[in-house]
Specification:
Distance between the termini: 34 Å
Number of helices: 11
CATH superfamily of the largest domain: Vaccinia Virus protein VP39
CATH class of the largest domain: Alpha Beta
Strand content: 15-25%
CATH topology of the largest domain: Rossmann fold
Radius of gyration: 20 Å
Structural class: alpha/beta
Helix content: 25-40%
Shape: globular
Order of helices and strands: EHHHHEHEHEHEHEHHEEEEEHEE
Length: 325
């Protein structure tokens, strides 16, 4: 009998005192900052899904075109009936588009927003009742550790790890190496034929990059501003989103887009026994999105423990999809 209900595992810990302290200390630092993982409450995940449909945000459609243009070669790397480990699954749409050609033996969707993942995975299960599905709430930015029962199921088949959308760009190069090492460890422990399919945005014209992170409709601005509301919930802060505006700029030196929230006026914010006065035009640094060259990213994959790599790009070489095994 086919199951019409996915299973769910919550590997998320409640916000600990240490993680909330880190968030608080980031706001108190001389250059205020917070981790981009705090974008992804339920509203933030919905807003990001909307961003992927914007005309300025070339990444999603360019990646999809690569999947289409090189479908035979890409699907040739995916082992039959593999465990699909969809990291940062969100709406699960990108993985679902690949189901018809290479059905998973088991689909495991991992996301930091378990509420959003629950709704999307239940819908996907109804569309593909023949595919066993599991949802895992997890912050994999620092660890990739699964509940024991799920861990055993993961490794019983070849693992097809899937990390599209250039989300790795949120990690600095040292963090990116650590994340890729964790994925390589899972793949190397699983059955032969395991590997990682990952999308990476490439270095290109600054104007094109900055437009992708500052769209005309202001959806990216809303996504960025939503982190203030999330911090209000987590810290008991009193940010007013009307006091802030979205900024995005490309740092050639660091090879990264930087997103900031800039104070429109002098504003005082209080939270959990702390208070800070932000001067007019002072910013909170909310996200980096690193851009890579093919050569540097290939080297990073090998440093992480993957022995074989190959890649596919679009005609303009704006974006690349890598297979590493």
């Amino acid at each position: 009998m086919l199951s019409n209900k996915p299973s769910f595992f919550n590997a998320l810990s409640p916000p600990s005192d240490s993680s909330l302290q880190d968030l608080s200390q980031g706001l108190l630092a001389p250059g205020a900052h917070c981790s981009p993982k705090y974008f992804y409450n339920a509203l933030g995940s919905t807003l990001f899904d909307a961003i992927t449909h914007l005309p300025e945000y070339y990444l999603t459609r360019t990646e999809a075109a690569i999947f289409g243009d090189h479908a035979e070669a890409i699907h040739g790397q995916i082992s039959a009936q593999a465990t699909w480990l969809d990291l940062g699954a969100g709406s699960c749409e990108k993985a679902a588009r690949l189901f018809e050609r290479t059905p998973p033996g088991l689909y495991v969707a991992v996301d930091i927003s378990l509420t959003y993942l629950t709704d999307t995975l239940e819908r996907l299960q109804r569309e593909h009742p023949q595919v066993p599905m599991m949802g895992v709430g997890m912050d994999f930015s620092s660890a990739l550790t699964f509940p024991p029962s799920l861990h055993a199921q993961l490794l019983a088949r070849p693992v097809f790890a899937f990390y599209p959308g250039s989300s790795l760009g949120n990690f600095d190069p040292v963090q990116a190496l650590g994340f890729l090492q964790r994925v390589a460890t899972v793949c190397n422990a699983a059955k032969p034929g395991s590997g990682l399919l990952i999308g990476i945005d490439l270095v290109k014209d600054t104007a094109v990059l900055e437009r992708a992170y500052a769209d005309d409709l202001g959806v990216t601005a809303a996504f960025n501003l939503n982190v203030l509301r999330h911090m209000n919930t987590l810290l008991g802060a009193d940010f007013d989103v009307r006091d802030w505006q979205h900024l995005a700029r490309f740092s050639v030196k660091e090879s990264r887009i930087e997103m900031h929230l800039q104070a429109r006026r002098e504003v005082t914010v209080s939270w959990s026994g702390h208070q800070r006065v932000f001067q007019k035009n002072e910013t909170i640094h909310t996200e980096n999105s690193y851009k890579w060259t093919v050569e540097k990213f290939s080297k990073l994959l090998r440093s992480a423990g993957f022995a074989q790599t190959q890649h596919w790009t679009d005609q303009q070489q704006q974006y690349a999809v890598f297979w590493a095994s």
